[in-house]
Amino acid sequence: MSGAGAPDFFYREAQRLGYVARSAFKLLQMQKQHKLITPGASVLDLGCAPGAWLQVACQSLGALEKGGAVVGIDLKKMKAPSSHCDSRVRTVCADVMSLLKEQVRAMSPQERGFSVILSDMCPTVSGITAKDTALSCQLGMRALSLAVGKVPLPCSAGDSNTELHLNSTGLDANEVGVLRRGGNLVIKLLESEENAGFMKFCKRRFTKVSWLRPKATRSCSREIYLICQGLR
């Protein structure tokens, strides 16, 4: 596998097929293995820039007449890519960390919530492992909180007596998430011991939970995806 930034098979394939980034193949693999997005689904894409996952999500909705919607949120102001996206895709420029659940729910069709939530959010990697891991964990917990509501998680896999409550600041105390019952959730994290806490919590809330390191992930990357299916 090529080093970071160097053209490789997935980079070239993305250009050939009209995807804006090689990351499209990560979601394509998840979709092939887990069928996360079904025709007519409502999809929320957190950290959507540059838009490759918007493209794959829209493709997975099926023909336009089947309906469905894809909403992408990112700190960067961007438009949905012209290739592989249609009128069912829209983007919102906002900070996921400060949005209230009611605001996110209002973005969904008929304000009924989303059937799939994808989080490809990742901190700018500093090279300081502890710092990068903590930021990744924070982003992951925010995605989980938006999906299922108030979330207590162990700060460390080895310390079951210490809990970190996402909503302890009172920013968003709503215990009801925006993921519909039976819905699916994907969260990107950096590999760390803290990830065991995510797995333990999600196993109680979803019928199937698994880890995946997609083939399109660069060899130098520590990223891994937690795939949760069937919200109870």
What would you say this structure looks like, in words?
InterPro entries: RNA_methyltr_RlmE (IPR050082), RNA_MeTrfase_FtsJ_dom (IPR002877), rRNA-MeTfrase_E (IPR015507), SAM-dependent_MTases_sf (IPR029063). Keywords: Methyltransferase, rRNA processing, S-adenosyl-L-methionine, Transferase. One of its GO terms (biological process) is RNA methylation. The protein has one domain (9-231): Vaccinia Virus protein VP39 (Rossmann fold, 3-Layer(aba) Sandwich). It contains six helices and nine strands; from the N terminus they run H-H-E-H-E-E-H-E-H-E-E-E-H-E-E. The chain has helices spanning 9-17, 24-34, 52-60, 101-105, 129-148, 195-205; strands at residues 42-46, 69-74, 89-93, 114-119, 152-156, 159-165, 179-190, 206-212, 223-231. Helix 2 (24-34) runs parallel beside helix 3. It is of the alpha/beta class. The chain has a seven-stranded mixed β-sheet, sandwiched between helices. It has a two-stranded antiparallel sheet with strand order 5-6.
Instruction: List unreliable stretches of 5+ residues.
Output: 1-5, 154-170
What average pLDDT do the residues reach?
Answer: 90
CATH topology assignment? Rossmann fold
- SS-based structural class? alpha/beta
Helical content band:
25-40%
**Major sheet: arrangement of strands:** 3-2-1-4-7-9-8
Number of domains: 1
* Total DSSP helices: 6
**Total beta strand runs:** 9
CATH hierarchy class name: Alpha Beta
Write the H/E string, N to C: HHEHEEHEHEEEHEE
Strand content: 25-35%
Gyration radius, to the nearest Å? 17 Å
CATH architecture, by name, is 3-Layer(aba) Sandwich
Fourth CATH level, the homologous superfamily = Vaccinia Virus protein VP39
Q: What about the largest sheet?
A: 7 strands, mixed
The 3D shape can be described as globular
Q: Distance N terminus to C terminus?
A: 39 Å
